[in-house]
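pls ignore typos typing on phone
calcium ion + seq
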Amino acid sequence: MHILIVEDEEAVAAQLREVLIKERYSCDVSHNYRDALDLIDAKHYDLILLDWNLPDGDGLSLLSLMREEGTNIPVLMLSAKSSIDDRVTILDAGGDDYLSKPYSNIELLARIRALLRRDATQKQTLLRCRELTLDLKSHEVRLGEEPVALSLSEYKLLELLMHNKNIVLTRYQLNDHLCQDYNSLKQSNLVDVHIKNIRKKFGEADIISTVRGVGYTVRE
Ligand code: CA
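k done
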């Protein structure tokens, strides 16, 4: 897990880094707004610890900018400001959590774990393959930004294929997933019909590949 610490007070940043490294997080430190922005653009982070007051800008506008640009990295804001208004401002700007200084390291680590857990759960509900996304919670299927309306059987087939990305599934496995009646599925070409319909709905997007004599797969 990679964490970015944005904190202008060098002693505070160093101490924070030490605490996180002891917990086996890998850390980068930025002491100002400009460097933080460059690092966020250049590298992947799982979480950002963001100080509010920075010498060349403020953490809150950095947070707003990130959210405007569609960056969804969880942000835990750290600040001496602690009024209810301040907390509301942070949450409204797209902050995920807030801790007022001085804080205890135990609480900080617990909040970091909670944010990383929450983020992991959210990521698991979305299956992706190239421009296709499938939301396991809402059952929404999208090609790029465009929603695609699938029947329940079509959705079930696509979901199984997406869960097994790059693995070829046989017609029998796919059929079995759709219905439990062995005799009816043995004679049925139901899977082929559904796949044909899904492809029609996907138009130009060539998401599902046929593996001749075996079955189907989606490949990255
Ligand atoms: Ca500061």
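Residues 52 and 59 are 4 Å apart (CA to CA). The first strand starts at residue 2 and ends at 6. more later
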